[in-house]
Structure formats: C-alpha cells, structure tokens
Give the backbone structure.
Amino acid sequence: MSDILDVVPADPKKFIQGRSGPWELVMGLEIHAQVASNSKLFSGAAVGFGAGPNEQVSLVDAAMPGMLPVINRHCVEQAVKTGLGLKAQINPWSRFDRKNYFYPDLPQGYQISQFKDPIVGEGEVLVERDDGSSFTVRIERLHLEQDAGKSIHDIDPNATYVDLNRAGTALMEIVSRPDIRSSEEAAAYVKKVRTIVRYLGTCDGDLEKGNLRADVNVSVRRPGEGLGTRCEIKNVNSYRYIQQAIEYEARRQIEVLEDGGSITQETRLFDPSKMETRSMRSKEDAQDYRYFPDPDLLPLELDAAWVEQIKASLPELPDDKKARLQSQYGLSPYDAGVLVIEGERAGFFERAAQGRDAKLVANWTTNELLARLAKSGQDIENSPIPPEDIAGLVELIETGVISSKIAKEVFDRMWAGEGTPQEVVDKHGLVQVTDTGAIEAVIDALIAANPDKAAAVKEKPQAIGWFVGQVMKETGGKANPAAVNEILRSKLG
Amino acid sequence: MAIDAATVRKVARLARLRAPEERLEPLAQELSAIINWIEQLGEVDVEGVEPMTSAVHVKLPMREDVVTEGGDPAKVLANAPLARDNFFVVPKVVE
Amino acid sequence: MSDLTSLTLEAAVEGLKAKRFSSLELTQAHIQAMESGRALNAYVLETPDKALSMARAADARIASGAAGPLEGVPLGIKDLFCTEGVRTTACSKILGDFKPTYESTVTTQLWRDGAVMLGKLNLDEFAMGSSNETSAFGPVANPWRAAGSNQTLTPGGSSGGSAAAVAADLCLGATGTDTGGSIRQPAAFTGTVGIKPTYGRCSRWGIVAFASSLDQAGPIAKTVEDAAILLRSMSGHDPKDSTSLPVEVPNFPSFVGRSVKGLRIGVPAEYSAPGMPAEIQALWDQGVAWLKDAGCEIMPVSLPHTKYALPTYYIVAPAEASSNLARYDGMRYGIRAEGKTLTDVYELTRAEGFGEEVQRRILIGAYVLSAGYYDAYYLKAQKVRRRIADDFAKAFETVDALLTPTTPSSAFALGAKDTMDPVTMYLNDVFTVTANLAGLPAMSLPAGLDSQGLPLGLQLIGRPLEEGTLFSVAGALEKAADFRAKPRAWWRG
C-alpha cells in the first residue's frame, strides 16, 4: 500500500463545470460505525436505543471522580473483524489516546480514542457503481473510540439537556483516503461499507438511528493540480443528504475559487432544510486536542492466534459471495450485485435457487419480490413470500404449467397471502393451456371470424398482436404465448 | 523558552480556567520559571528509548461483553447541580 | 481512655481479640481524641455516628468469632478516597458537597476486613503539594514542634492530615496516596511510617485521580508492623482498574522481623546532593551502620539520571492531571458558577473551584501537551522516565534494596512556602519522586530527631512487588533506631 495521497486517475466525465473550466472533486470519508455489542467500550452499561434518559449510564460513563476504563473484549473483536472485512492490516500492538476538549456531552473532558497507533491499518474497499463498473477506495485506518452523549437544545430555550446513554458506546472510525471523485461514488462507498459491517455483524448500519455516520471531506481542484484545501461536512445521515451536501459544497468551493478567493479549512454542517452547508460557529482558537496516551490503559496487544481464530470465523463477504453467485449460478454481475447488498437477500436467493433455473429465480427475487418489498418498506427477512414459494413459482414456469404472464398474477396472489403457488394455481385454475390442438381451434375460429384482419397481417406483421390478444382473452390468459405465436405465424404468414 | 501573557491566555482557554488580566503576567513568569527548569531534560540522550508505559509489564485486561451497570438514573444524577426529568441541565450550548 | 489511643494498631487488634476492651471503647476513645485534636485540623470531616455503628458491628463479629484482620480498628481516611454516602472533597472547593454513591476499592477492603471509619482526613488540594497548605479546608498543623518553639510546622503533604492524625494518636492508622512522595514525605515529617507500594499493587478505583501513572494508595501508621497489616488489607488485584496487577497479596506482616542477614543494600551516590544538610547525611550514615550491624552488605550504586527525576515528574504529573481534572466542570457534580455562556460557566467554575497550585499545574500540564510541545516535553519525559527505571533495574541486579534519606530537611514552618518560588517548593520531593516514576515500592520510617528535636525519616526503595523485603529491612532499621519520641500534645484544647 503506497503512501501517496493521489492515485486515482482523473475521469473527465466526473468533472464539474465551473465558469472558467472544469474542476475535479476530491473526497475522503470518515465513517463512524457503532459497534454491535451489549455493553460499552470501557464500561458495563448497556448499549441500545430507546431507553429513558440516563438509564444506560455507569459511573465511568458519567466520569465520576476516581472512575477508570476497562476495555470490552467483544468490541476489540468486532474491530478486528471489521478490519479483516476491509482487507486491512491488523496491528498487533495499538494504543489508546485521550483527545481533550470540553463539551457537556463529553463527561470526562476527553474522549478515549486512538490517535497515533490504531488497531487497524491500511486496507481497501471495492465499490460498485450503478452502471456496473467498480472502483477501489483505499482505507487509511480504523480505530476504536468512545461515542459522546447527547445534548438536546430544544427542550428548554434557556438550557441544554444532556443524556449520557450514548456516552462511552464503542465506535469504529473508518478513515478512507481521498479516492472518491463524485457524490454518487461517495454514497456508493458508504453503502458498501454498510453492507460489509452488516455481513460481519459488527454494526447494524442503521443510518437513521445514527449507528452509521459519515463525515465527508470535500475539496476541489483544477484537473492535474495538487490537492485543494478541504472542508469537513458533518450531519449527513442519509444517502440523499450525502449527495446533496457534496454537490452544494463542491459548487460553493468552486465559486469561491473562481472569484479569486481561497478555501478556509473548516468543519461545516449540512442543513437539509436549506440544502446547504454552513460553517460551524467558529471557535477563536483552532481545537488543540492535546493527544497523549491514556495512562489508565495499557497498550492493546493482540494475540496472533486470536486474530487467526477471528479470521477463520468470518462469514463469506459480499465480494466473494458476488463472485460465487456468478460462477455457481451463472448470474449476471448486475443480479449478483443486487442480491449481495444484503446477506439475507443472497441467502433467500440461494434457498430458492436450489435445483431451479437460477437466472429465473434471480429475476423473480430481484425484479418482483425486492421491488415489492421496497415499496412496502419491508426487509426480505419479513417477506410474506418465503423462498420455497419463489422456488415453487419458478418450477411451475420451468415445467410450463403456467406462463410468465400468469406467473405475475400468481405472484400477486401469493403476496396477498393466498398460499403457495400450487395452491393459488389450483384455486384459480390458472394452469396454462399448452394443448396445441385447443389453441389451434381458438385461432382457427378467430381467423374465420376476422378474415380482413387475418389478411392484413401479411402486410403489417405487428397486426398479429391483435390476434395474440384475442387468443389470450378467449383462453383467460392461460394459453402458452410461445405456442400461440408459433401457430399464428404459421397460419397467417 | 519563555511563556508570555498571550500564551497563558491561550492555554487558560484550552483548560477552561478564567485567568483575570492582572494575573496573566505573573502567571506567565511563574510558568516560565517552571518551564525553564524543566528544559534541562534537553540534556538527556534518549536515542532509541521507548517511553515508559508501566513498571511491570502486563497485557491490557479485557472484560466480557455483559451489562453490569446502569439502570439507575437517580444514582447518576444524585450530585447534579441541576437536573430535570432525569436529564442533566446545563447552560445553553450554541452550535 | 487515652491509653487506648496510644496503642499501636497491632496491639489494639490483639487487645480486641483478647477482649481487654471493645471496639466501641476503642472507637469512643479515638472520637474523643479526634474532637480534642481539632487544633491540628487533620480531619476535614468527622463521622462519629458512622464510626460507632461500625464499631458495634465489629464487636458483634468479634463476639461471634468472625473477626477480620482489622476488626474494630478505627482508621482515618484521606479525603481523596471516595466513601459512599460520605462527603468527599479532595480538599477542593470544586467538589462542593459531593457525596459519592460508591466506595473506593481500597476502603471497601478495609471495611471488609472490619475497620471502623473515624472521618476524612485533610490533604493538599487534589493531592498537589508537599505541605498540606493548598487545602481548601486550611492547613494542617504538624503535631511536632521544634524544641522550645511555638511555631506551627507543616506535617508535609499531600497526605498531611493522615500523617498528623497518626502522629497525634487521633487514629490507629490512616490511608494516604503517593504520587511524588505524598505518603513518605509527611511520614518523615511526623515521625510515622508510610509506604507507597509497587504501582498497581493497590487499586486506584474510586480514588480521585491526580496523575494516573504515578498515583498509588498506601498506609501511614505508627510502626512498620502496623503499616504491613494495613497494606495487606489495602492491596489486591481489582478488575475495575486496568493498571491493577493480577498478583497475589503476600502476607506482609510476616516479613517484619525476618533476618536481613546477607541482604545487599545499595547507597545511591547521586542522592548525596551538594548542600545536603549535615544532619541528614549523618542520619543516612547511621542507617547504613545499623543495617551493617544487622548483617547487611552495603554497596554503593549509581542512579545517573536521578537529577532529571524532578523535572520529569513536573512534566508527567501536571500533564496527566490537566486531563484528569477536566471532568470537574460544574456540569454533573460539584459547584457550578453563574455565567452567561457555557464557556463562562466552565471558566468561572474552575477558576473559583480550583486553588492556585492546582490551576498552576493544570496550566503547565495543558501547555506541555499542547500542539508542538508534546514531543519535546511529555514524550521526552516518558523516555527519561524509562531511563530512570532502567537505572534502578540495573542497580537491583547487584542489590536488594536502596537506602536513602526521605527528605532534604525536617518539617518547615507553615507559611514558609509563600516566600518560596514553586521550583524550590518542588525540591522537597527530590528523594521521593524517583520511586513513583519507576513504579517501585518505597517506604519511609522515622530514624531519629534533628537538632531541633524534629523527626527525620529514612527511605527504603525496593524491586517491583518486593514490599516484603522492604518490610524486613524496615523492621531491622526500626529495631535499631528504637525511635520512641512522641510529640508533646500541645493541641489538646
């Protein structure tokens, strides 16, 4: 892994047009992922959403006099796991430092973090774009740190209310190199990191709850020049906000520079109601965190055997799963990609695909089921249609019992809870008519009744469509479309 | 290396200690004397020396991921200068 | 009644066991002594009701044969130890009326072993000082006065209250803490025994932190045996303190009285500073002679980095303190000043709440950690510290313990420090800080009186975890010195 900051080749398609010419957008992200654990990083208080104020707070979290931190083994393991998922170097020796500053939601007056020697070093993440192409984002490091409490400013106009439930919760901060070149790439990168941590079970990736947060460092430059001054954007807790914030900030910086000004390195907050970034209330002195190694903790030494054990316990990761779905099931990169975004989707697919036409199963899973689930805001774990029934549906199509068209109706009824595909087909008599004799009979009757239309087909081949429609009407949609077309063509030329 | 009044003001702000104007210069002198005295460490050769972490080498102990504390907001708030509805009430923060 | 307060702790334990008196009687005698001794200002909080109820419980346990090693013994507790439900102030205004909802591990163990709490003892504010003159509760008077003088002297610090109380028989023993000499120096000034154990021997959980990598709890007592009995109860691994050593507690009292024949005692050349008062040198020489008589082999050793110990200490300790004291911010406990903005409240609370010396050290600490200075000061100091520790390790290859004076003088007058510049004041710790920096166990015991009739102490420094050796050598010295002098009780009103 090189030390060079700038390794991504310039792509003019991503440049932003300013008044005076094109600009390249350069970004790095710091993702804070809340570690999935029962208790906090250095205290035995519970972690989790929804408790009443200050109900999940230990004496250590409240920074009472004489309190001391003791590290949670599981949180260390989760960080190692995540590092392995990022294909990163696991550092056998790392240390905790104090980051000193004053804020009411930071009871100790310092945050225990890792500054000089983080637990995880360099790694990389392969990210897929919507168009199927992919790009690599290098990871600089991952470190463990405490989360702060919550300051609530709008309960009382004259005071701030502080809830320390979140104070001391373990966070993994994942720092990327500035390899991202567009707002779409930024969102895609966050999505991929989210997928990885969800696969690993090290973070639930819930952006809304703030369990996965992204801070974006944005800078612009003329193509070919060195890195520009960056601003850090905070408070972007959805993919849409990430993109909007980046787009606004890029344009803001370009305007400043084209007007002859310069960018002040600062932290800016995204305001979703105005869709703009705002400079945070400037502090007279730049923050001097006075980092030093926390003397209440010893260096963290990882047992090589333990790391190996963790490595061996990793589940199949998204990139590997995607490759396997393609090679094992013959899926397209696109379908495989959609299915691996959530491990549960791929699991559903594989259960349904056993012994079936995998491409058909993939099709029904992604185009029909996932689409329907997205509309109703459900996860595949809560799908009203189990994988066995998708498999059953596909089997009926494969064996010609129903046509693809009828299958859509069966699917709708299955979605509505009417039962298994076989049950639905039986109940509504949806078995496909494949008897060519019967179809021929219907067609002959139609041709006889509509001689002009029949003749017109020779000049306008599309006119066959009317006949197809009529056959379907006559057969209640159950005629096998392929047979219908074949017979019609042979009769009408 | 001397510490001047401006530095005292800056450091006092970092440490959230109100230092009245008239104290800045005397503090600067006191602190400078201490820093000058500390400067003699410059004489020591520490080439290749690892900083001290502990007297006896022990590995960082780890605890199991079990909930052992909390669930008692009253205890947490028992000594709070101001609390309401189980929140700590503090001066308004302007963001 | 007063006979009971002149007992040693060991004799009291024996007397209680033999039912010559009850814990109630013993405790009542000490409560009376505590009340009559208020002129010393050793106690900042008397807890007679609690003491009596604990004494009654102790008597019940003694009667039922369930007595612990300290059953029924009245002790004073330095007000740096958090005691549940009992005001704990660190002798600072900033903690206000803080009543911990938890008990420190060390005091928990004392109560587990049956001891009785008489009250909280005075100290230099946040343990920062060598004369107990920075306390928000006013200075402590040394029970000792120079011959023919009515001038009040300091008992030393920071554990001035603890040392004065033991010397004046206001308790049978006391807890102290030692960061740069705060147990040993007051012990030397008051003719008592004080030991700072190996770093990590006693738990720091629940002790108001000053400098995390240097602080250690330890006893101040009337005799070496008493100190051993107390240290045994105070010591032990605590999983709540990550720096606590996972080692068994030896039976310290069993080491007192053991032969020291053949032990090698080192005399460090560098502790003979130019300008050392002749009396101190004479006492040191006397100590050497006593140990030779007891069969020890005396050898000169060299600790070349000794002269850098004080400046090293005055970087490391303030740096850690500046961070440890950040939690005293008026938000969750202690006093809160009025102010218009959050910053005002922080600054005014801390300016009002912290005394001058504490503020001075916080400023030094923040300065040496601030941007650009970390490498030159803190990092450098931690490296010099390693050198100092290596000096000792090398010396301990050829000797088993070191003998040095404890202090460069006997107790000085109250108010004397007002005319001293801070650096001169800091020189009081010149012989003691090295043991804190290297994490080594060190003990002071009274060895004689100076020409003014004031006690002088000798210090023993040992290998990590070899407090036992120190108790054996101290036992031999104590026997040889036969220090029986007691201060005239001028303080009884």
Q: What stands out?
A: The CA atoms of residues 207 and 265 of chain A lie 26 Å apart. The interface with chain C takes residues 59, 62-71, 98, 100, 102, 104, 107-110, 160, 162, 288, 290-292, 295-298 of chain A (CB under 8 Å). Chain A has 15 helices and 17 strands.
